[in-house]
């Protein structure tokens, strides 16, 4: 079952002084379910407000459209003045992939939004960055050249026909630029100096643009220019990085202020380590860092794994532990406490989650199961037993990676532990999903019967809810099958002192797959004449037999390795 896709949208509106107008725009965003308004940042001098929202892709582009529409109603570009370049009431509206979505998919959403704005609002729309249709229009500054004042003339030029909407001047709304770009992280690195000059020197060492080339002395020497009279630049060591040094009076330190414009090219941890190296070469020490705004969960997880791997330690740990390692390694808590629920975008979007079965203590989960409520039931318990089986295999992998004398094998066991963690996470999700599936059947059964049409709709709702309830335990079976290679490897290659743990893991997998198979069959029995069921039952039967045989083999192999000495 696919994980939720998340995109971010950062529209810039040409109004930064009238808070009533700004609120009218953001109110439209907050009306859309599935979207979270994360930040509203108005600027008086620029007369511009940057809004950040995120959520489900379809919901986000719906919220963005409504905001663009409202901005076109309440902002009149005829009277707009500000320091920032702009060409429309909604000047620019980028979409950013955050989780479980590709840039290619994000581009499609951006173009879908651009098309709707042009068609329904009669606003000329240009697409930029990854959503651009031509190379010439990738750069925002190029598209926006001439700004609002030159827009009428620009639209009359066939070369600048909008990608969507009319090639006609909309005096009130101007034009809008919609795009898809990489997630931008604003990140500051703290130094044990007050010198802005030294901070700048380090920033120039690493930033992609680098520094101006000079003859002789690198600071005071004559600037070297090319044949066109432009300064020749010496590139820095990090791609997709912008950086500058400054002094922060509040903290009494110099910082390197960084924009990471493509985390796939230069992740957070790589930027941090490279600046540590360059600072050390200049006699300066990095003492910590701070995040400005939000960051995707993956960046923190990747950072945690990176620093553990540098220590040659297993990275097969829960997200919370990986985040803790990342925070300590990057010094993100030097200036003030780092709160994941406030800084990691997925956690902010989740808000205060409703209580999940997987969040309960062992005791509470047991008593909740034993209550008179029919859920959680066998399906959830089966999924949890599978998670425990995978957890035992993961434990053996982690113990093996740290075993004295096995230092040259730590990475192999770390890889196994990471696979085990991924299986656990999915099975824990299915613990709750099984109960939700049961509840959906109950809700469908409570729909009114009514006349023939109403009854037919009710029957269809029950049938579809039941089908989904069959798919959940089948997903448990497919997922727990992934634990077999882990448990087998830990039985044959893992720490011999923990071989019995891998054996118990195999028994837990056996119980899980049999329990899940029972739930596939019991749910299928109530699905009526659904043509999809026979094929699924056949697949489930084969999978059940395969996992039982494989798990039994692992268990017997475990027994064979345990010697009882008289």
How are the SSEs ordered, and which strands pair?
Layout: E1 6-9, E2 12-13, H1 19-30, E3 35-43, E4 48-55, H2 57-74, E5 90-99, H3 103-121, E6 125-129, H4 140-144, H5 151-156, E7 176-180, E8 185-191, H6 196-206, E9 211-212, E10 233-234, E11 241-248, E12 253-260, H7 268-281, E13 286-292, H8 297-310, H9 319-330, H10 340-343, H11 345-350, H12 362-370, H13 378-401, H14 410-445, H15 452-481, H16 483-492, H17 499-525, H18 533-561
Helix pairs in contact: 1-2, 2-3, 6-7, 8-9, 13-14, 13-15, 13-16, 13-17, 14-15, 15-17, 15-18, 16-17, 16-18, 17-18
Structure description:
The chain has three domains: about 5-180, Formiminotransferase-cyclodeaminase, Chain B, domain 1 (2-Layer Sandwich); about 185-350, Alpha-Beta Plaits (2-Layer Sandwich); about 355-560, Up-down Bundle (Four Helix Bundle (Hemerythrin (Met), subunit A)), CATH 1.20.120. Helices cover about 50% and strands about 15% of the residues. It has helices at about 20-30, 55-75, 105-120, 140-145, 150-155, 195-205, 270-280, 295-310, 320-330, 340-345, 345-350, 360-370, 380-400, 410-445, 450-480, 485-490, 500-525, 535-560; strands at about 5-10, 10-15, 35-45, 50-55, 90-100, 125-130, 175-180, 185-190, 210, 235, 240-250, 255-260, 285-290. The strands form three sheets. Strands 1, 2, 3, 4, 5, 6 and 7 form a seven-stranded mixed beta sheet that branches. Strands 11-12-8-13 form a four-stranded antiparallel beta sheet. Strands 9-10 form a two-stranded antiparallel ribbon. A hairpin with a 4-residue loop joins strand 11 and strand 12. The longest helix is centred in the C-terminal third of the chain and has 36 residues, at about 410-445. It is globular, with a radius of gyration of 29 Å. The relative contact order is 0.07.
